[in-house]
Amino acid sequence: MYFYLTLVLSVSVTWITRVIPFPLAKAIQFPPFFKRFLTYLSLSMMTSLLLSELLVLHQGSLPSLDWMRTLAMIPSFLVGYFRKSLMLSVLTGVIVMACLRLMS
Question: What share of the chain is helix, strand, coil (3-state, %, to 5)?
Fold first, then answer.
């Protein structure tokens, strides 16, 4: 019983915090500087996620590049750039990464 209650409450909280801001953002008139900030927010978030996955941190030395993930990122990036499809880009990255792991 507690499992299902926890599951329902977790889903509700997650869904509410991710969905409610969209209607509120349409109702509020933001100042121009904030709109400009929001245009760069998704790019900066994606860049930080990408770099954190591509770089391997080492204790006491500079980070190195994970070559397998970098190779998987290149076709995924190209598909995303030319096709403008996030789903197709992610699918391409997953398939290329699976093939690279299968070959190594």
Answer: 80, 10, 10
Indicate the average pLDDT of the chain. 89
* CB atoms closer than 10 angstroms to residue 80: 18
**pLDDT tens per residue across span 3-54:** 999 999 999 998 888 888 888 888 888 899 988 888 888 778 888 888 888 8
Q: Provide the residue range defining the domain that includes 10.
A: 2-103
Which neighbouring-strand residues pair with 77? none
Task: Give the C-alpha separation, 25 to 15, whole Å.
Answer: 16
- How many domains does the chain fold into? 1
